[in-house]
Structures are given as C-alpha cells and as structure tokens.
User: Fold these one by one.
Assistant:
Number 1:
Amino acid sequence: MLNINHSWKSGLPYFPADPERRTMASKIFLKNKMYWLVIFMRILSTGSVSMLLGCQAASSLQKGCAPSIAVETSELTKKPLANPAVIKNGSLAFIRGSQLAPPRESGEVTTSWYGPAHHNRLTASGQRFNMNKNTLAHRTLPLGTKVRLINPENGKSVVGIVNDRGPYINGRDVDVSYAMAKKLGFVKKGVVKLEMKTIQVPAEAKNKA
C-alpha cells in the first residue's frame, strides 16, 4: 500500500518523484479528500434539517428560531413538574394531546397563585406582570374581564382583572397574582377552592359575541 507522507515544513502532502507512483499518490490523496468532504456535507445537512424542523413551529411566532421543548400533557399534571429545568426562558413548549379539561368560568374554581418567578414578565395581554397588582390568568375568559373571587373559608373577597393565560395544569382553573392570594389569605396553602363571579366583560368581547 502506498503511503502519502506530509512535508514537515509546509504541511502539504509529499508525492514521490516516480510518475506512476506520483499518479497513484494523487488519486489516493483526492479519494481521501472526497471521503471527508462527503462526511462533512452529511453532518451539515443533518444539522440543517434539524434546525429547519425546529424553526417551522416558531416561524409564525417570531423571527429566527427558539429552541423547542416537547412536553407530555401528563407531565404538566404533576405537582411540581417532573423536570422544570428543561423548559428555559425563550423556549417554545409544545403540549402533546388535548387532555386539559376546560376551565370553569364561574362558581367554584380551583385557584393557585404566581409571583416573584414571573414578576415583570410579559403577559398574554402585552402588559408586564406585576405580582403586587390584582390580576389573574384564565385560559378562556376574555382578556380585560373583571371578576370577583371569594374565599369561602374566611369570607375574604377581591376584584381582579384577567390579563394573562393559564394555568396549564389539569384541574386548575385560575392563577392569581401574589397580591390577590395574600388578600384572599391562601399564600401558604398555594391551591384552594374559591368562588368566582364575573363583574364586567370588555366591550370588544361583547361585540364579538
């Protein structure tokens, strides 16, 4: 087998002086180059396809491509999430399946609260979430809807405005701000049953109806 040595001075391949051996060495050299070029192109094409698939879902939402995370709906029902670290800020979470039951819009609602971890983040309404204001998240009520929440355990009640979407955990109907949870007296409990009444629906929502 013919060996092709590289010059220690230039780093380029050294070809024998004999014409036949030079021709054979050239063919072997080109064959090796083509082999590695094909490997490189395959790796590059695989990466491009992966990036394309990841961007397809994000293209309608934003320019560029955010990393996408696929989350089983069953994982969202666990308290807490089995591995919350897997979902990063800026990632797109695709929930497989449609197992989430429709949230209740009045009467008894299962309520949780959110605060410091989400403070100052953008909400579905475009407003910045302020944990110290009376706002709440609901999956179906029109944004801007004003509701009254009553804690039957202590009789306390608070009026808040829907400005976000959620919660995306099966069995939960409403997520209220820390301020509302504090006024309703269930910060330590975390999740409680409350009574909800709609006070006012935005004019835009009424016109659409």
Number 2:
Amino acid sequence: MNYTALRAIALSTVALAAIANAPLNACAADAPKAEFLNSPQALALDRPFSEAVRAGDWLILAGQVGSDEVTGKVVPGGIGPESRAALQHIKKVLESNGASMADVVKCTVFLADIAEWGDFNKVYREFFSKPFPARSALGASGLALNARVEVECLAYQPQAAKLQPAKH
C-alpha cells in the first residue's frame, strides 16, 4: 500500500495498537515490543502517560495542549496561539523520535468549543498540507489545564528492520 493510501486510512488508536502488535512478516517471538518514549522534559513532569509509544511501524503520540514549554501553563491568546503551540509540541515529539509531520496519518482534535473548529483549521493548515491526514474533531467538556484544544496524532514510519526477512 502506498503512502498516500495510508494517509487516507482512519483507524482508532486501539486498532493501530492491535495491528502493530501483530506484524505480518515476523514470528511472534521476533515481534518488537512497544517502546514507551519520553523526552527529559516529559520525564521531569512525571505525568501518568508516555509522550509517545512506538509499536512496530506506528508512532502513537499522547495528546498535546498548547502549553508553554517553560511554565507548563496554557499559552495566552485563545484558540489560535493554543493550536499553534499544541501542533508545535506534536512536531517536536515526532522529530525527537525520528519522524515528521509528513508521517502523520491520523489526528484527533478535542475542542473546548466546537464553534472554534474553523479557527483551529486555519492553524492546522500551517502544519499540514494535501494530502491531509485522516482526522476526527469533537467538542469536549473540560480539557487538561483548561485548554481550548488538545491534539493527538498517529504517525506511520516503516522501520528498516521490518523490511528484512523474518527468522523462524
């Protein structure tokens, strides 16, 4: 399946985790284990979740809100600045794990007010271009840190080891 076709597939995080745990070209004993990935900054925050998890060819990112990296507080200015900060965090996590925004195949967007969907989209287009990742957006009551937006993404990044023949 080519990259463009993969970008069009909308799978839930649970489905992707199940797929990643059952690689097609390896015996179960050879299957890589999930890697729980955290930057030093994420570890220092001591939150009860990982910043990202690599499961086979999938990089699954935790949701990001538009917080200031130094203070940890939501950036001021509303949906525009918060969206930009959240997507910059996504970009940073991807890049620190060897991926890029171009590898993202699915995003889920949680908005404190669904009426801000259009404003979010303006910022989203600064980070993504056609063909866009599959995406879901929904209004949510009460986001972490009283944020206006939270974004989580899934990236597909084939690993070189997966291209080698399986050993049985």
